[in-house]
Amino acid sequence: MPQTILDLLHRATQANTQDRYRHGSLIRLPSQGSLVVAGDIHGHRRNFERIVSFSDLASYADRHAVLQEIIHGGPQDTSGGCLSYKLLFDVARYKLNFPDRVHVIMGNHDTAFITGSEVMKDGKEMNRALSAAIEREFQHSCEDIKDAIKEFLLSQPLAVRCDNKIWISHSLPDDKFMDTFDPEIMNRRLEVGDLCKPGSAYLLTWGRHHSKSSLDKLARLLDVDTFVLGHQHTQQGWSRPADNLLIIASDHNHGCVLKTDLITSYTADKLAELCVPLAAIP
Known about the structure:
Strand 3, helix 2 and strand 4 form a beta-alpha-beta unit. The chain is an alpha/beta fold. Helix content is 35%, strand content 20%.
């Protein structure tokens, strides 16, 4: 069993790095087909199943799916350990089934697990809870499993840029760090140091405060029209805090998923109209 999981994670890591649309740490999608974008998932298995069903990649050969922040949340073992790694294994299988059309992007909980830094959720330190559950299940092989998970998470791209100028990432640099962020990080593979503050991968995944002027500046820098992010809690599953910013969440019962095409130009208002409640998906 441990070797099967190790093989799975190693193959999924390779699939991340060999994605045909990947350039450095950025996925560049062409102006054809369609796209389904999920917000944070955080171990919510039922919502993941709905996202997979809704995306229906087997039936649409030119459709892509973007996922983010799989770990930290959802079911627990009898000792309170976080079992979200089981869903991460299923996401790895999904990536292997559609290696060039499933794109799992880096989130701040991923950077925290890779670097071993503390991250709190619902009053619990999630890395400790996740590690404890892995140790109980895999025992003598637990360190190998944790290392393979870290390798898979580190192999994730930072963002997706579409030809129709939609940008998808977990977050964006905070206003006060906008001048510190180096967009050149998109042009190379990530190193662990990039994930530590004030590394640019850290800044891109942890930011929460985005003024209109900062968003407009970053849009010009990246040559995009509209940002689609996760990271921030939205009670109704989506919010539009700025005229070029849409935030979506997929980790609760009111979560949403976004479905759009890769040809049309969209405003954030129009993208908000295309958000689909996950609860409405069979």
